[in-house]
Design goal:
The structure is a homotetramer of 400-residue chains. With 400 residues, the first copy, chain A, is of the alpha/beta class. The first copy, chain A, folds into two domains: 8-116, Rossmann fold (3-Layer(aba) Sandwich); 126-398, 3-Layer(aba) Sandwich (UDP-N-acetylmuramoyl-L-alanine:D-glutamate ligase), CATH 3.40.1190.20. Chain A has 14 helices and 15 strands. Chain A has helices at residues 35-47, 95-98, 111-114, 125-131, 157-169, 184-190, 227-239, 249-255, 274-281, 287-301, 336-349, 354-376, 383-388, 390-398; strands at residues 2-5, 19-22, 50-54, 78-82, 100-104, 120-122, 146-150, 174-179, 195-198, 216-219, 244-246, 269-270, 304-307, 313-315, 321-323. In chain A, helix 5 crosses helix 11 (336-349). The longest helix of chain A has 23 residues, at 354-376.
């Protein structure tokens, strides 16, 4: 039985086989649901029936739910929303309320979104296609820049391999890996197209190479957090004058030396996962709080932050926000982030702006994962698959 | 000529071109066939005709044939049985009687099976699909655990490579390989997604890493049986508090130190091939006897045992038995077991119970082999192929 | 609105949406456009309309545009030319005038081309198919020669891997890589079909191997420009008596020691990119000037030069010129040139003449890139892809 | 114009565009063509016309052409023969007379073949399918034996990689590579399924491992011919008691120590290419002479010899001869022989007889090449491709 519930006078009988269409409250709520309505919501949640919410699960706010009463929000299996998703839909802790959500195009611009203070955008193929510049006939490898990846340490050279191979597939004209001696044979065997800059240390990043040869630099994957690596990281930030990509252990080192933020050129790119972000910005009680911190951190230090997750969130120094819409949980696997770093550095090396590089890199990385999933299976997807499918991701975006 | 033989009065003329339908005796036998019936069976076996047994080859018991007279059992080319196979069909030494066997679904539950003392089950895709949990949208690599594989020694690093790569394809969020120094470049080159924990020894497992970082541990592939490895193995069992997977040389070490059984946490998983099992439990005069020993060993030490073979047999501490129905003799090739170990550890790391991990791992491993066989040929199938097809095995089960 | 402009009386209104068919001037010009015609050309260029030139963009000369007035040449989006492209179309600095160009076959031989002093040719599949000799049934690996590649140094062993693998795919019967000790494991792992000649040096080319075993030699990819490598390079040129292929760092060393030209056997092959060429011949103010220098250098030193670019230009000692028509800007990526070197050396080792080897190698390399692009995406194309698609390039040419 | 020439009265006008059907002489000749018939043959050969011979090119003998007058034999472009090819068709030096040849089945057994003193056979898929035993359901890796390959030396470890990988694909249950220390990382990275037995020497084979663990042994690929390797080779032959496969440098060592033949167990397998064979047996003036020497050597030393070529010739101690009919000139590439060695050793390890192993190995190796050629192109085919296509070769034979 399909029951549309729009009012809350009396608690109907609901069986596990029913489908409830939840139209009780829309998005205009500014205080928690209480009283009879709260009882109805609890009644529906406890019924075991399938729940489909229209617009927004009743009781959920469109943005900040920190002051909400979590027990009084519909827990939908499926939510159909109109034109644009609500901000709150992108946060993992609201996944229990929205269930799977889909956007129905009803031909309108939602006023609420246009007027919101922090404008946010969903990434789609069209936007990425506009960013990507077709290669020109008379271009040469110098046209596409020279990327430097500082990555790897004893026991973690795989991170260097993954980021370097991804960087090659991202289109940079030349890619150099700066690695400790212990990784020499590993990286040259795995990525013959890459040039190698060999550190003086057997085990770890310790000496900054001459940066003048490179059009973009990324540092972090597999670096480890040894004192030598931290010292070299500082020296790198002091010498470097261009927007730089910092990931993984590079971020962990940074989180222990927050005074180094001042050394980061404007529009540098940080790509933390939530754990790394919390080390940078302190822990948060909710995803929304973390999101606010991300926005604040981007503005304060004039950096771009890509907070990785099911919907990777990109924030700019100017206070803009992009939510990624590609990717799948098969990408929750070791090395996935190293691949993203390589891809963003590759785009940056080719002359895309830091913001373009981050946006396009995050989107393409997700498409690669979505394409790989079909062939490799979600469970079995590994980071190398993302590299293998990067070319098909470019083809998919260009042909979309 | 097709001849249905249900009675045994007189020995008919049979030529090599005939097809004999054997319906002489069913499954109710409790003593060996003798007298005129035995003569008829010998007559049929010696005729050179094709023999098709219905229900069960005449003379064969449904379970324990140790006291049977082996010369007085029909040697069928093909056996059609009803609803469920008999227990005896799963044992290699009865393959000469059943020939190829197929199950015909006649819509009944066989009472004999339901009432048997040791209930056994055949694995099928539906059961595995129920075990496997779909990945959740907002999950991250931490959701899928961190597997530790202790594997490899000088001359046998390939076993580490195979188990690590399989573990990655099994879906664990992170995989760490604990290996001796001699394997460093090999494993990092082959599996860039894996982290490496490097032993102090150049040649062999000798030091147990900090286990607290890992959600599941497997030990054994390619470890060798050096005194150093044995000593470290003991220390591992002493430190470890969670169900652990022991395979290959790990089992051989255990078989020489049976007092260590007490160190194994309940529901630890042992994955011997018959030779390794016999070292653990003593040799057996028949497959049925080995099966009884397996059951007893599982109960006594509260461990799960997967005895690898054409029908891998899984026994639980509670005395339940599962027979695998996937796989093919192309998988009888070096390294096949290392791949299985990696897969089971991977599932265990993700939070599946030890029993679920063993059952799903064994079944998926067999499906991977069946899919690989079609492309690679049964003779040419190698262990790496099983890894390559693990993703397709997941897809096949999820879409079955 | 489509407007055909053949005369220049008065400046018409043109909007951004219009399409202008430029038929103002053909190819007979011998002095720059000036006066009212120049105004019309500027007017059209500034209009923002799409411009299609017929025969040649008005104002552009067919060959040498060094004395032209660059502001008074039509900048077409698309140029349709007849029967043969003009020489000027092949130079990167004229790409802004021709836009994309296509040749329409009108069934005529253009007199201007036939009578020109420096006859030039466009490579096509038919010509390459004529060069390639089908393999004979009773041939053996000795029939296909033994190629020697002197390549690689510490940090640049990937160049050796790429050229060696490409040389194998090019069809040479045997391939030997002469490499420093640091590359031993790398090259043997990546290319098990290759034999290895190991230099005395850990880091660099330093000793010339016995050349008598080899039917063709190539030197340069990843060699570095160390004094040791330069000294060994000189010794190589002194010992070698057969046409040799020099690329990459080999060319850079040569450019610092131009007195060594005399050591090059006639019909040796140089494969510079524009930067390397300018080091050899000095910088040029235009592509046309570089082209003239290339012609002159080929004649003076009796060498074949393949100047790599969107249209790779091949010049012979006899003053002939070939323009390649295959390839795409996805090939503007590190290692692409190493692959070409390996392919040319491979063909030379098989007994093709130096000119045939260069022409076929350049053409096949481009076809490999065009085929790879379809599967891998232009942005993601890497040098290894070109090797992977070499076989398909041979198949495409042979079946064309 | 098509002209059938059966008589030789007068020399007709022939133009380059004609097609000549050569029916002048059949296979019964026992002395060279002379006089007017010889003039006719020369006239036809010089005409430039296409020549199609029926049965046999006129003037050619069916077997031994050493005493023939080579100028008086028709040089056909194409020869149609009946039921069975003549022996002479398999020898490279007669390829100029037969051109491409095809066998037409006319439903007869050629008396001449049946009565010949040295009976020879052409390999076909049916014969190989009869040799290959389907894998049994309850088999395990021990069923398929344990192969030992003694291969590789400093600079030639690729030969070890290729033979080991091929041996794995051939179906052996276990494969061990005995290699010098310098190859440890290379072989373990390339073939994780293989076990490694490490020689005491860094550079070369020097110590024979315990042979009792292995069901078959092969020695030779990439061994080099150092005194240490030769000494170890002798010791191997002294210790070994089972038919052994000797290839490549193993054969070269043997050719310098012919007194060691006595150490070879009966039915050992030698797999020389023509150059290696000539070192063993002295050079020959014709292919037929070499063939006679091969027959004699097989009989004298009771060994199986597979003389590799377009039609690999296999001779047995009993004086039988098999000509292979699979393969193509794309296989004339370095490492192709190492792959064959691995495959034969693999079959031998599985319990196939030495003759079965050689016949099936040679045939499957050729099928793998024919299948690989379609995808990879004949020119670009490399030895690794043969390994990759071994499984498809098994599938093709089993499904033929």
């Amino acid at each position: 039985m399909v029951t549309i519930i729009e009012e809350t006078s009396g608690l109907p009988e609901i069986s596990r086989e029913d489908i409830i269409i939840d139209g009780i409250f829309g998005s205009g709520l500014s205080r928690p649901v209480e009283g009879i309505a709260a009882k109805m919501i609890q009644h529906i949640n406890n019924s075991g029936a399938k729940i489909v919410s229209i617009d927004i699960p009743s009781g959920l706010y469109g943005e900040d739910n920190r002051s909400n009463i979590t027990g009084n929000i519909i827990k939908a299996d499926l939510t159909f929303t109109f034109q644009f998703p609500f901000l709150s839909f992108f946060f993992a802790d609201n996944g229990q309320y929205t269930g799977k959500w889909e956007v129905l195009d009803i031909g309108l611009h939602r006023e609420a979104i246009i007027n919101t203070e922090s404008p946010y955008f969903c990434l789609d193929a069209e936007e990425i296609r506009k960013i990507l510049k077709p290669r020109k006939k008379f271009s040469h490898k110098g046209t596409y820049g020279h990327a430097l990846l500082i990555a790897g340490s004893y026991g973690m050279m795989g991170a260097a391999v993954l980021s370097v191979k991804s960087c090659l597939r991202g289109g940079a004209g030349l890619v150099t890996a700066h690695i400790p001696k212990c990784g020499y044979g590993i990286v040259q065997t795995a990525a013959p197209e890459a040039l190698i800059s060999i550190d003086e240390s057997d085990l770890s990043f310790s000496v900054v190479p001459d940066l003048s040869r490179y059009t973009a630099t990324g540092a972090g994957p597999g670096l480890g957090c040894s004192p030598a690596a931290a010292k070299a990281m500082k020296y790198l930030l002091e010498k470097n004058k261009k927007p730089v990509v910092i990931d993984a252990d590079g971020l962990t080192i940074l989180s222990g030396n927050q005074e180094w933020y001042g050394l980061l050129p404007e529009e540098s790119i940080l790509t933390p996962h939530p754990g790394e972000f919390d080390r940078l910005a302190g822990s948060s009680g909710s995803m929304y709080e973390r999101y606010l911190k991300q926005l604040a951190l981007s503005k304060k230090h004039k950096v771009i932050i890509a907070l990785k997750g099911a919907h990777t969130i990109i924030t700019s120094p100017g206070g803009k926000v992009w939510f990624n819409t590609t990717g799948n949980p098969g990408m929750a696997t070791g090395g996935s982030g190293d691949v993203l770093t390589g891809l963003i550095v590759s785009l940056l090396a080719q002359g895309y702006s830091p913001l373009e590089s981050t946006i396009a890199g995050v989107y393409l990385h997700g498409i690669a994962g979505d394409l790989a999933k079909k062939d490799k299976g979600e469970e079995s997807l590994i980071a190398s698959d993302l590299i293998e499918y990067t070319g098909k991701a470019f083809l998919a975006v260009n042909n979309s």
